[in-house]
Specification:
This protein is about 45% helix and about 15% strand. By secondary structure, the chain is of the alpha/beta class. Strands 5-4-3-2-1-6 form a six-stranded parallel beta sheet. It is elongated, with a radius of gyration of 15 Å.
Length: about 150
């Protein structure tokens, strides 16, 4: 049986990332932890890298890839590539994206030029309890439809 395509869940903090990973581990499904739009600009790659590391340490059985959204900001994208995050979303000019793609590949960083359609954005549950976050993520992973 083929494994289901990883679903993207937008996380805005450590509780969100941990809840998403806990639900993914329980479901036995890989996911994509996706930052909020532009988080690479205002949060930065150091924040994202440490958030992901802490969430993965809390839920080591979860399988995930991660994407930090840098929008069309070339400086944020360059900083994210340099910092060694897993992957970035860069929606800037095509010629700049082509140069970044080469640099990112050399550093083992995945670069995508279109923001993935998330299955769920946890932004409206910023202060939700850990149990509520896990339930919402589990529902999104079990559903065939997008929740955004």
């Amino acid at each position: 049986m083929a494994e289901k395509e990883p679903r993207a869940i937008v996380v805005h903090g450590l509780a969100h990332a941990t809840g998403a990973l806990a639900a993914a581990a329980k479901a036995g499904r890989p996911i994509v932890l996706l930052s909020a739009p532009g988080a690479g600009i205002y949060g930065g790659p150091g924040w994202w890298r440490e958030l992901v590391a802490a969430a993965q340490a809390a839920v080591p059985d979860a399988r995930c890839t991660t994407l930090l959204d840098c929008g069309d900001d070339a400086g944020a994208a360059q900083g994210a590539i340099r910092s060694g995050v897993d992957g970035i979303v860069f929606t800037g000019r095509a010629d700049v994206a082509a140069r970044f793609a080469d640099i990112a590949a050399q550093r083992g960083v995945r670069l995508v030029t279109e923001r993935p359609q998330p299955a769920l954005d946890l932004g409206d549950g910023f202060f939700a309890s850990p149990d509520a976050l896990r339930r919402r993520c589990a529902d999104a992973l079990a559903s065939a439809r997008a929740f955004c």
